[in-house]
User: Fold this.
Amino acid sequence: MFCSQCGAENPEGAKFCSKCGAGLGVAATPAEGAATPEAESSTGLSANVAGLLCYVAMWITGIVFIVLEKKSIFVKFHAWQSIMTFGVLTAAHLILYTMLRAIALATFLPGLAIFAGVLGTIIWILMAILWIILIIQAGAGKMWKVPWAGDWAEKQISK
Assistant:
């Protein structure tokens, strides 16, 4: 059973949502900023579409929507989360990969160069999986939080 207010999944027969405390089985009004099919962002798109577009080009579209979006808390949350999640992961990947490759070239250790390539590939695969999950969740109208980045994004939209 899903909460009609926040979208959290709850055990069957529960009377209240385990996440937001709303009554289950009773029609509830959506939380402020929650994406509903009729909710629009200031870009003219539905909040769900704008939210998922925040992830399309990872942190780049997050920046675009931070600049464009003026009213939807849902879209702003996903834009900030996109910037933080993929900005940090991209920077970490570039720094780690570049550093390992430079050390491998300087010390003539081909094994380290291979390790750097494998590690870089693993990081990109994990980023792609996270990217797909975030696009699906935003498109479904859920404010699914990535640990740490989601908390940071919530603080940014409350400023």
